[in-house]
Design brief:
The structure is a homodimer of 529-residue chains.
Chain A: H1 23-30, H2 35-40, H3 43-60, E1 63-68, H4 74-83, H5 86-90, H6 99-107, H7 136-144, E2 150-157, H8 164-169, E3 183-190, H9 206-216, E4 219-223, H10 229-252, E5 263-268, H11 286-297, H12 301-304, E6 305-306, E7 309-310, H13 312-315, H14 330-333, E8 355-356, H15 357-371, E9 376-380, E10 413-415, H16 419-431, E11 435-441, H17 442-445, H18 449-464, E12 474-479, H19 496-502, E13 517-518
Parallel strand pairs in A: 1-2, 2-3, 3-5, 4-5, 9-10, 9-11, 11-12
Antiparallel strand pairs in A: 6-7, 8-13
């Protein structure tokens, strides 16, 4: 726990102004939440965090990205982006900081032509496709790799936390070298409910939660006192930043902490609190209309927005410069870092000879990685050697901070038996401009079938968004296809991943084929992307 | 810890006869493991557990299934199945308990026509397709649901434990009602290595592991003393059974324990221990051949098998009757439990009227579930209500033991935001003969694309295996297709799951289509299976 109270100059609007109440008891008392209530439930917490991050960035001049995991969380991001002027910067005609812009934001929301209700590539500051839950955390860790000054704050909803991909992504700290990489502040937002069922994490008590995440390797701080939620959250964030700096300072001064215990927060807030019990018929029912009006008026919007513009109270908690704002960090919209080219023809095999294309590819990769020491990584579900890419290990090694032998050695290879983590790390690393490669057996790449499809949606829209710059491709090397099944047999056969890539439009994906033995290694730019 | 030592009448062969050594240090000292070494690594632990389970079944007359998670674990299962005579029972011509059968087992292994190196439907006792790791644990929990006397012992490898699906499957105890369901004894087998990289769990110390799994809700016992591994493992298994019986007794006498802390074991053994450093060229190199011979001879196979038959020493630790043997439990090979039929026409809509087909389906399901109170379940990623199936909740409810409101009420619906858990539960429930339904949005069913494909491989082979009986179908209700996107939009679009089902041969899969409004509810037997 932080020992000193950090003064908050201009406290952001309170999302939860009244006394603490047990989330479960509250919601049970109110009966089941309606669709509107449950989708709204995540937004107050997201905005609360956004407001406090603004202050944190101001206090420490941080480079920060905010990854919003919870489903239907876009309204929170969009409101904050409008307030901080990021929507105005990227959409000056539609969403200016004025009455017209505010009206457009509200009336076009979640209808064709407006912003969708999930975070997507149209959302400034976003490096993550919302909707299909589970990937926010792994993406966040990928983004901070080789970005030593970057901190990604990642909110994981307690619904999303039930997914397998998130459940294993908590282990990602074990692959994060504080000497060369930045840090993630994970915030588990436990508001007690998914759409209509209670959540696992909402029904775990603090002892269970602290035990679980301590086991993962974190220091855990639970923020839950609604009487004093602003101070508590701000102090917790200050504590997280100071813990991160300690770990990084130690590693960067040559004395890395073994198994550093990174900070994480658990934010407990009740879902759908203060929403009127009934408001579905507010369009025709005067009582419901009044209840709705009373509720919305309780936010005192007039103190926050005047004449269609955010007031000084709001603007004073923003970061000092535009590029520090959560919606305008350059790494989120114009991050492209090129690779130094390598003469691939040198790695060809002589005509008439027969060599393993994978062995040759390994040698080419070895050279590419040597020439680009901080801008390329390989993620693999422990199949580097069985895929004959081991030549890559001649000048680099594996990176696994929990293993004393690979700690703090700058290894470029992460081998974790989670295709979801491999894909998530690759996405985060790529969407912040660097290049990643994911080799895997053909049958098991399908494990991330939908992640790949969701990612391609993000990229498709990103290419249509004018203010986003180029992105590197994500690169798979699909191996162990039907022609090379050897001893593994039926369980290792499934060609559907390539089928899914081929379904994507040609401007977004390419699929070159290597024969098992070849007389020429492939040009680097031609892999599946 | 158990207080009394359970005497072991006839100790099974020791897999690890010599002093304890740190797995990491050992393997690092020996250099990287070769493919043979690493694939062999899991088998000693699996056989050790199998042997002790035999004794446990004898001691307590248990109904038990053994689910083997680790990849390339089939040799362990096959050896044990041959020893206990289960291979002879199901394959009398090929794998009898005699010299010819033993020779066939060895020479045909992992070549066309023989058993594969991963567990599959040809393996007696198996209810789980091996190879694609991550699903053993969820399948085990599905199998014990509504099987009050069944215990599934599930070994999860420390490679598999890194997968997302496994990471969230540990939460499955929270959906297990001890009043009506059996229990799982999960054994995390931490041998330190995957194929070539260290594992996360192998590099976590006991404090981290105990903290993590206590947080999940377990009581954890670490078995790691190689000097005395047999006694320690047997005592740990005895303890697990006694804890299970306590929890079940309390629940079944009407006084359920809130948040019961189910037992689990962590078994630490070093991988590839005692294997000669080099044996790849044993066919031509005399030194390597001698090293290989010395190593194999150290197992004193002559004391275990004589004249091609298991000796009395081995047979004396087997369960008393065939049906109690791990390879011959009826629930694993002939489990079919039919459903009482319901007159579906009653739930049709009148000609000329328009009704939601999902609402009608919900009403039909309500009736089906009433008529079959212990043999049908629904698993959903919290989409029951948004999919308009809420009529089902009129006579049953959700089942979530961590929530006081749904504890011990026999709810037939589990809503967990993990498609992997939903699919795994459904597979385990179905492969032990009962019927399950999994409704989900079209775009997110693809999350379990490869699980569904692997399951269909198991079923395809199971239908070809003569000694396996009929199985119920697994049933998806795919909703929110392109025609019903409403506010969710692009992120919720992906029709590829149906495409994957259509790729499966028609004798294994059917896909009927319902229009959003219909004048007839579908006959129950015609859903996607």
């Amino acid at each position: 726990m932080p020992s000193k109270q950090i003064p908050i100059a201009n406290p952001p609007p309170l999302a939860f102004p009244s006394p603490r109440q047990c989330p479960g008891t509250f919601c049970k008392a109110q009966g089941e939440t309606s669709i509107g209530r449950r989708h709204w439930g995540t937004c107050p917490g997201l905005i609360l965090v956004w407001s406090h991050l603004n202050l944190l960035i101001r206090n420490h001049d941080l480079d920060m990205i905010y990854v919003v995991g919870p489903g239907h969380g876009a309204p929170a991001a969009l409101a904050a982006l409008w307030l901080e002027g990021s929507l105005e910067r990227f959409y000056p005609d539609e969403y200016g900081c004025n009455a017209e812009g505010l009206k457009n934001l509200i009336t076009r929301f979640s209808v064709p032509g407006g912003f969708p209700s999930h975070i997507n590539a149209e959302t400034p500051g976003a490096i993550h496709e919302g909707g299909e839950l589970g990937y926010a955390l792994a993406v966040s860790f990928g983004a901070v790799m080789d970005n030593p000054d970057l901190i990604v704050t990642c909110v994981v909803g307690d619904g999303e936390a039930e997914t397998g991909p998130t459940a294993t992504a908590w282990h990602a700290i074990k692959y994060l070298d504080p000497r060369e990489s930045g840090a993630v502040i994970p915030i588990l937002h436990a508001n007690g409910f998914k759409i209509s069922e209670r959540t696992i994490f909402g029904c775990m008590d603090d002892k269970e939660i602290v035990s679980l995440f301590s086991g993962y390797g974190y220091q855990v701080l639970v923020v839950e006192n609604l009487d004093n939620i602003d101070d508590e959250l701000q102090n917790a964030l200050e504590w997280a930043v100071s813990e991160i700096k300690k770990i990084q300072k130690a590693a960067r001064s040559g004395e890395p902490i073994a198994k550093p215990r990174w900070p994480m927060l658990v934010l407990r807030t009740p879902k759908a609190r203060f929403i009127p019990a009934s408001m579905e018929r507010a369009g025709s029912d005067k009582e419901q209309l009044k209840a709705l009006d009373d509720w919305l008026s309780s936010y005192k919007i007039g103190e926050l927005i005047k004449d269609g513009k955010p007031t000084k109270t709001v603007l004073d908690v923003m970061p000092h410069t535009n590029e520090k704002k959560l919606g305008q960090h350059k790494a989120t919209y114009n991050p492209y870092v090129g690779l130094k080219a390598v003469d691939w023809q040198y790695f060809g095999a002589k005509k008439g000879t027969s060599q393993s294309c994978m062995k040759l590819t390994g040698k080419l990769l070895d050279k590419v990685f040597q020439e680009n020491p901080q801008t390329i990584r390989l993620f693999s579900p422990d199949e580097l050697e069985s895929n004959k890419l081991d030549a890559l290990l001649e000048h680099t090694q594996r990176n696994f901070q929990w293993d004393q032998y690979s700690r703090a050695n700058g290894g470029r290879v992460i081998e974790v038996l989670s295709e979801h983590n491999c894909q998530g790390f690759m996405q985060g690393y790529t969407l912040t401009g660097r290049t990643a490669i994911f080799p895997s057996y053909e049958s098991f790449l399908g494990i991330v079938h939908t992640m790949m499809v969701q990612y391609s949606k993000f990229v498709k829209i990103a290419r249509e968004v004018k203010w986003r710059g180029d992105l590197p491709s994500i690169n798979y090397i699909e191996t162990s296809t039907w022609a090379r099944q050897e001893h593994n047999g039926f369980s290792h056969q499934n060609p559907s991943f390539i089928g899914a890539v081929l379904n994507i439009k040609p401007e977004a994906a390419r699929v070159p084929v290597l024969s098992p033995t070849t007389n020429r290694a492939p040009p680097f730019r031609n892999w599946v992307n």
